């Protein structure tokens, strides 16, 4: 079962994008259709991170109709992992300062028939407890925050990362 981790893994994966050539996934293609040019490399990097080796996947994306390249681009990505579980991600990218682009990435990954304790001890073993949010334990690794939600013998992991700037 391969689950993608954000944070350090995301940043390391991003550094390889330009060296390997242009990636054109569903999110990148939709950004181009909306007329987004300014942050296209950053969108492409996030798209590659989410979908390069994914099975079935798809996305709904949106941007402003007027001056789309100067505005927020947002996408909801859904993909099926090789083990049959599903991952959901939302990403937002917008022009920032000094010619760079800022963004957020939120992922929700299902772990059917796996307790959150087991997920915490394996997938999230390097995350540190930092406190609670609305009664839920919050863990952190680098710039990534995670909450694990137990659902009757299964677990859902919700991870959130803010990127200032988004790597190219």
Describe the structure.
By secondary structure, the chain is an alpha+beta fold. It is built from 5 helices and 8 strands; from the N terminus they run ααααββββαββββ. It has an 8-stranded antiparallel β-sheet. The protein starts with 7 loop residues before the first helix and ends in a 5-residue tail after the last strand. The N terminus is likely disordered.
Q: Based on DSSP secondary structure assignment, what is the total number of beta strands?
A: 8
Report how far apart the termini are.
28 Å
Discrete helix count: 5
pLDDT averaged over residues: 85
Alpha-beta classification: alpha+beta
In N-to-C order, the SSE pattern is HHHHEEEEHEEEE
Question: What's the structural blueprint in terms of helices and strands?
Answer:
Layout lengths: L7 H7 L2 H4 L5 H9 L5 H12 L5 E7 L9 E8 L5 E10 L5 E11 L4 H6 L6 E6 L2 E6 L2 E8 L2 E10 L5
Antiparallel strand pairs: 1-2, 2-3, 3-4, 4-8, 5-6, 6-7, 7-8
Helix pairs in contact: 3-4
């Amino acid at each position: 079962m391969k689950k993608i981790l954000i944070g350090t893994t995301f940043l390391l994966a991003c550094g390889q994008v330009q060296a390997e050539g242009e990636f054109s996934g569903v999110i990148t293609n939709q950004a181009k259709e909306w007329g987004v040019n300014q942050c296209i490399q950053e969108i492409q990097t996030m798209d590659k991170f989410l979908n390069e080796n994914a099975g079935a996947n798809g996305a709904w994306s949106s941007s402003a109709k007027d001056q789309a390249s100067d505005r927020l681009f947002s996408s909801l990505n859904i993909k099926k992992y090789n083990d049959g579980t599903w991952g959901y991600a939302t990403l937002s990218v917008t022009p920032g300062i000094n010619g760079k682009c800022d963004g957020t990435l939120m992922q929700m990954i299902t772990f059917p028939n796996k307790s959150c304790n087991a997920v915490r001890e394996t997938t999230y073993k390097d995350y540190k407890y930092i406190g609670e949010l609305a009664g839920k334990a919050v863990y952190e690794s680098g710039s990534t925050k995670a909450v694990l939600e137990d659902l009757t013998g299964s677990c859902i992991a919700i991870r959130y990362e803010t990127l200032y700037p988004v790597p190219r």
